[in-house]
Design goal:
The structure is a homodimer. By secondary structure, chain A is an alpha+beta fold. The first copy, chain A, contains 12 helices and 10 strands. The interface between A and B is large, with 37 and 37 residues. The structure holds a DNA duplex.
DNA sequence: GTTAGCACTCTAAGTGATTGAGTGCTAAAT
DNA sequence: ATTTAGCACTCAATCACTTAGAGTGCTAAC
């Protein structure tokens, strides 16, 4: 168990390191006004903290640096509730004051503000197809054997795909199919579209359509890829300003990871509710060994819709980041729920 | 004027430097089998070439490095027509053998192959709205005051926008407008959609719609932003492997530029036809001072649709890059023209 | 339990000295 | 009139060495 003084020293050390990115020595700590005891005492305490694994030396006669265990302890026990500056609050709220119509634009802007306020990289997982429901489906022919299929969700999200039409399937068949789909599939969540379609429509289709089998495989192909939600970024290169990323290979690794949506998608899936912090090795991607990620969720009517996250070095300003992130997640939840209400009760 | 031997030496020097990225000395050149004269002779020639500005020294006793003027001369006069390896040709042609339906996918894949073959960063400007024409327009209501507008082009490109509907405009009004639009605006190029709409539809709308003014401003807002064509990337971080980009600040500058579509858009607009090479300072973006860009256009029925480009260090493999780029541009042109034909004569 | 003091460690920065790749120039060879 | 061998010279890069400074751990005194 840590003594009061050890807690205090650990906190000072981490705060200092977060600011300077330089190993912190006993003298540096002892020079602070609010420290009454001498550097020798601090040295003793530091030795204990090191033995317990909360801090490390970079070499045998260097100052101390927080270990991942140390950061974890710091985040879990030493953070006081964050206070946002007026500037930050204004900045975020002015975003939502604009009341943009398009969900995607709201999200893109949120990512921008987040990265600007924090100088880290912000990542937002768009609303999951999970909760959004089909409003309408349209098929528009392009040539004799191709057509565009357009799905519109109640959130305003539009999804489109081009497909080839087998020669054996006629236009009137397709029209029939679309009509049936609009009848049967309206308000079905996008995520379960495929399974619902297979169940609900099989019998009806068999009755009305000649080349049932061909139409069926066509439809199956169409919904083969349940589109993963989109990943939005803000300040993709902000993290390059951090001194821990002067190594170009690390940078390459990280930026490449950004390009792989599926990977990022998994990184952002939070395991618990609320604001979560993953420190260094805790997220097992090699590219993110020196990074921490703070994630928060946003909701619509209590249902989780997506996540917003900040990516920084392990030495990141946890308190501030968590504050800003939490605040923005809240506003996002409120705004989106409002929008959703207006759609639902219409 | 350059003598035969000077040409030869310049060529050897640039070839060598492109491979090694190290300054080339007289001894290195003299050791080649096909060089009969001594290093001293070469030193004299190098001094002349330097005086003429084709090569430079990095310091007073270093080997020589091509200057931008040197590269320019090399590209304009010293390149033999490129020969593609079987591997490269196969790689590109297998791409088009798949005959993907969606233009965007073809382009995305092209970017991927380009960057893989060259290890540079590839950039592709999507088909201009320029030539694609409106096939159909749809408005789908989302709530009592919002709706999604969907434009489908004959290329299969889908464009969508969410908009607010003023309370004074009724649904039936909107339906009328959409009908009129589909009648009057079909096959109008997307780029002139706005102007055509204003001209063609003004009188008709006035006749049929009550709140003409409100509808009009609504439509105007809708088409306010003529969407610039999309920019696609392949191997965004490839360029980071080049030794000239070990400086993190240069990297940041460049990657940030990538994020700004409008800027890239201008970079890629070629000035002349065919394959164009811009070397170093020739493209006046600060972020690209150490880069060269090779661009080529692709066409549909002789009309320029977009460009594809390779971005590398000034010390780039011009011959190979130009070869691959030209070949792919050709195949792209052929494929897209075929597709277009099938749409047109349908 | 705390602290002053001291020996010790290690990095970072600076200083020569050395090496080697390269040049330019001159005088001899072709 | 070229070409080339030879030589003096330059400069970056590297290595060994020193020094300064920040930091530690330990011990003995407070």
């Amino acid at each position: 168990m840590l003594t009061e003084r050890q807690l205090f020293i650990l906190q000072l050390l981490i705060n200092d390191y977060i600011q300077t990115a330089e190993p912190v020595g006993s003298r540096t700590i002892s020079k602070r006004e609010d420290v009454t005891f001498s550097s020798a005492t601090i040295r003793n305490e530091l030795a204990d903290l090191e033995e317990m694994g909360y801090i490390e030396k970079t070499h045998s006669s260097s100052g101390r640096v927080p270990s991942e265990k140390g950061y974890r302890f710091y985040v879990d026990n030493l953070l006081s509730p964050p206070v946002l500056s007026k500037y930050e609050v204004n900045n975020i709220q002015s975003l939502f004051a604009e009341r943009m119509v398009e969900v995607e634009k709201v999200i893109q802007q949120s990512a921008g503000i987040l990265s600007e306020l924090t100088q880290y990289t912000s990542i937002i997982l768009g609303p999951e197809v999970f909760e959004t429901k089909l409003r309408q489906i349209q098929i528009i022919p392009l040539s004799k054997d191709t057509a565009v299929v357009i799905l519109v969700a109640d959130s305003g999200h539009v999804e489109n795909r081009t497909m080839k039409i087998p020669p054996s399937v006629s236009m009137s068949d397709i029209e029939k199919v679309v009509n049936i789909m609009n009848e049967r599939l309206k308000d079905v969540p996008l995520i379960s579209l495929k399974s619902t379609m297979m169940k609900e429509m099989a019998t009806v289709l068999k009755k009305h359509i000649e080349n049932y089998n061909e139409v069926n495989t066509m439809l199956e192909n169409l919904f083969l890829y349940t589109n993963a939600e989109k990943v939005y970024y803000g300040g993709k290169t902000n993290i390059l300003t951090q001194p821990e990323f002067k190594d170009i290979d690390k940078v390459r690794l990280l930026l490449n990871t950004f390009e792989q949506d599926e990977v990022m998608y998994n990184v952002l899936r939070p395991e618990k509710n609320g604001i979560e912090v993953k420190i260094g090795q805790e997220n097992d991607l090699e590219a993110m060994q020196n990074c921490s990620i703070v994630t928060a969720d946003y909701f619509i009517e209590g249902k989780r819709m997506g996540s917003i996250a900040l990516l920084g070095p392990t030495r990141m300003e946890y308190q501030r980041s968590m504050g800003i992130l939490g605040f923005l997640a809240n506003d996002l939840t409120r705004t989106l729920t409002d929008r959703y209400q207006s759609f639902k009760h219409w």
